[in-house]
């Protein structure tokens, strides 16, 4: 926990938001895999 807080403090706010977006994408992909893998593209 402490190390994570120090890392977050050393990172810019935009980078933190980017990390949150990446985490959200991973969670969405884990919850709705058929939506991403079955899309006809």
TrEMBL record:
Domain of life of the source: Eukaryota
Protein name: Uncharacterized protein
Organism: Anguilla anguilla (European freshwater eel)
Lineage: Eukaryota, Metazoa, Chordata, Craniata, Vertebrata
